[in-house]
Amino acid sequence: MQCSWKAVILLGLVSIAIQYTAIRTFTGKPFQICPVPNPLNCSPGPEAEAFGGLCDEFPYFFYNNSRKTHILILATTRSGSSFVGQLFNQHSDIFYLFEPLYHVQSTLIPHFTHSRNMADRRVMLGASRDLLRSLYDCDLFFLESYIKPQPANHTTDKLFRRGASKALCSPPVCDVLSPSEAYLAEGECIRKCASLNLTLAAESCREKRHVAIKTVRIPEISDLRALIEDPRLNLKVIQLVRDPRGILASRIETFRDTYRLWRIWRATGRKPYNLDLTQLSTVCEDILRSITTGFSRPSWLRGRYILVRYEDLARNPLQKTREIYEFLGLSMEKSVEEWIQNNTRSTNDISARHKYGTVRDSAANAESWRLKLSHEIVEHTQSVCQQVLEELGYRSVNSREELRNMSVSVVEDKTFVPFL
Ligand SMILES: *[C@@H]1O[C@H](CO)[C@@H](O)[C@H](O)[C@H]1NC(C)=O
Ligand SMILES: *[C@@H]1O[C@H](CO)[C@@H](O)[C@H](O)[C@H]1NC(C)=O
Ligand SMILES: *[C@@H]1O[C@H](CO)[C@@H](O)[C@H](O)[C@H]1NC(C)=O
Ligand SMILES: *[C@@H]1O[C@H](CO)[C@@H](O)[C@H](O)[C@H]1NC(C)=O
Ligand SMILES: *[C@@H]1O[C@H](CO)[C@@H](O)[C@H](O)[C@H]1NC(C)=O
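YS: structure for the whole thing
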């Protein structure tokens, strides 16, 4: 595929300020001078000649020939993001981190609930962006100021969900195994591997070509704009969405305390007067803002954003994963395919035991919320999230019969063409 030179110039213009800083930061490191491999990760066409001229006009137009692609999975709690994370964790050339922003949140806003106020958001966002930037650069020491207790000698046993990251549970980071052995399952990793040596972890990160980070702690895509526009990061965002009714049902099951009043509503049929409705409306407002931005195709998102519905992944995991890898411009490994096969055939009993385990939901039960929520709660969700449902192709149900009739899916066939 070729890139339009206009797009390249546009991107160049937008990011000149960033580039300028980039050059100063990169002092001492070699970098490639024009003509550039274009920043949109597609091969330069016949127009590549034009870049020669561009260089003279824009002396700050530098690119690194072998830039890493970095990946961010932007999701919402209980939307299947652990599963999507695994699609990258299983790749041998990707360094994967599971929710590193957890540490930012627990330090800055310890009494966080699933609704968020604007002040909390601003506090979180600045710090989160700085941390992400450092992590994509494999600077794991930056994380230390958020880990409690603060790591001594760059080692810690308090990294959130260390076990979800393959690189952190295999040699050389975890050296209880010989290099030929496979990595440990999550619980085993925590039990057997000694404290995490962050120096070793950072080395392991640098040895991989790509870094993938999953987060449910960034509200919407626009919050990432500064990172997406930073040419050093070469960031690509996978926005994972799910039917809000499915998200709600899953949260009610999982977060028993936080969603206690929803369970009471479901059980008694009476809506508790003090029910926190923002737990739901925030989810839908954030998704709506993100997809509205995505659908409007601003130039800063070109080639950098793909929208994925969880239900499509559940229906056809292998094909969907191939599409995602293709969008990223990475080759999909056999190990990723194998992992998908191992984990999607039926409900896998090992992963099912863990609260955040990967594939509890196969295609068949991606819609299992229809048996778990009461019709009143479904109606309420449909009215709060109406626009999200429409935009994403999730059909509303109008009666109890329709809700429970599982032979008719409420997920419409819908294709979201990536913006290339
Ligand atoms: C380009 O970036 C990669 C990864 O960050 C780095 O290893 C390499 O040395 C850089 N190459 C040049 C020519 O700057
Ligand atoms: C850190 O390393 C130093 C020197 O090796 C050692 O004296 C100290 O006890 C270590 N601190 C902790 C908390 O392990
Ligand atoms: C962590 O690993 C580095 C690099 O191998 C090593 O130099 C350092 O001593 C290790 N730290 C501890 C506390 O073992
Ligand atoms: C898939 O399952 C087989 C058989 O249990 C196992 O040997 C293999 O390591 C698994 N592969 C992955 C990538 O999980
Ligand atoms: C479910 O819906 C289908 C299609 O509308 C209908 O033919 C079928 O009778 C319904 N099943 C039940 C149990 O209501």
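YS: worth flagging: Strands lie at 70-74, 94-98, 155-156, 196-197, 210-215, 235-241, 305-309.
IM: good catch. Also DSSP finds 20 helices and seven strands in the chain.
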